[in-house]
Write a structure and sequence with these properties.
single chain, mainly alpha, three-stranded antiparallel beta sheet, 54% helix
């Protein structure tokens, strides 16, 4: 019974891919300004999760998809 409860609880734990990040965290990860993040949100390039009227978060998986799409369309930047 104890293992079942632990398993059920683990199911609700956030994984790395669905981790929610602030605009500031995303900007730091991508080495851009928070204003760039807001522009990408408005342009529909980066979906957000609204937590309230003024509070938003961005899924890490969406950031990774943005990076992957950028590499695919523009090629590697190395």
């Amino acid at each position: 019974m104890r293992n079942e409860k632990a398993h059920i609880g683990a199911k609700n734990m956030p994984t790395v891919t669905n981790e929610l990040l602030t605009r500031k965290q995303v900007a730091a990860l991508l080495c851009v300004s928070t204003q760039s993040i807001i522009r990408w949100e408005i342009a529909g390039k980066l979906p957000v999760v609204r937590l309230g009227a003024a509070s938003v978060r961005i899924r890490r998986s969406d950031v990774e998809k943005l990076i992957q799409d950028s590499i695919t369309t523009q090629g590697p930047q190395c």
